[in-house]
Protein: Serine hydrolase
Amino acid sequence: MTMAHAAAEPYRRALAMVGDSEIRVDGICHPRFTAVADAFACNFTTHNEAGASVSVVQDGRVVVDLWGGIADPATGRAWDRDTVVVVFSATKGATALCLHLLAARGRLDLDAPIADVWPDFAAHGKGRATARMILDHSIGLPVIRARLKVDCLTDPDYMVAHLADETPFWEPGTRTGYHPLTMGFLAGELIRRVDGRDLGDFFADEIARPLGLDFWIGLPEAREPRVAPVIVHRPVRDVPPSPFLMAAREAGSIQNLFVFNHGDWAARGVNTRAGRAAVIGAASGVTNARGLAGMYAALLAPAGDPLGLGGDRIARFADPMGATQMDATLLQPTCFGPGFMLRMDNRGRPGNPDSLIIGRSAFGHVGAGGSVGFADPDHGLAFGYAMTRMGPGLLLNPRGQSLVDAAYRCL
Structure:
């Protein structure tokens, strides 16, 4: 799928010097969307952005495609047009599309028991759990109780065996609790059993390559020179802990198991060749803003449904399936469609929970540190943002939200 530029103009702006490197923003921007370019530049000058990209598609035409900053602080390499980075949980939207594509082709019934194709999964009260419960985070397996090995996330067979043998934290389908990492292994095993290919190959063959996306779940070695290393966020001292972090101090809690029982991929492996080659369907996607926006643009008119998902199915992506005032994992209000995050406006709530302020018909997904991609059918809008320096919070942080807000102001 190719997208035209909507009379977008070349954009080049020098911002500042960081050490011996001049920070520059390059790309294209339609005059109507200069507020996005201004917000993107502001992130570098006032919000400690290191390297990043932002892309906006409206009505099938690219109106913003910007990149800038430093891709690799160790070498001073600049972020260029084709730089890519790990986008963490923004990967989940891509993984969800793989399940929906199999369903659209009649090869997977999202409402049938998972045990129909994965018999061992029925153990410990999971016999009636369905694929749809994976998508809406209600299946009851947000974490694993058993102590996991250090390289667990790069060993899908190991994770899948533990998930089949795990007792759910609640009766599947009765409660919503975000599944930060297990969602990808559950979905990936379903895809492997139904299709024969692993998640990474299926996504590459059926979605990324047909749409012309620089987007991988399991990065090929040839693409390594284009990768920007992730700069891991270090929490600021003396900031009151969130309810999530408070609960993480309690041994055996969902929050504690997530923080302390998922190996070392997020802290160390993410910036290694092995870590980026790993097929982690909830977290290891490698792309840039153009890849995220391009994937979601394919779900909007006038793209013409190039994946063959069907208009009715796509229309239901924005239907709330798992809305709750107390997410069992994040301990704040959340709202999920079938595989996608929906608008979560938690501004002004006690405890200052995080938000994702997008349109009321929009669907997409954030990634740890602030990456985000989404589609908004009401406005014909697709959006992507990817960056190297992770920010705070569980959902969208101020850098990403400022870009989303600017895009909506331009409509």
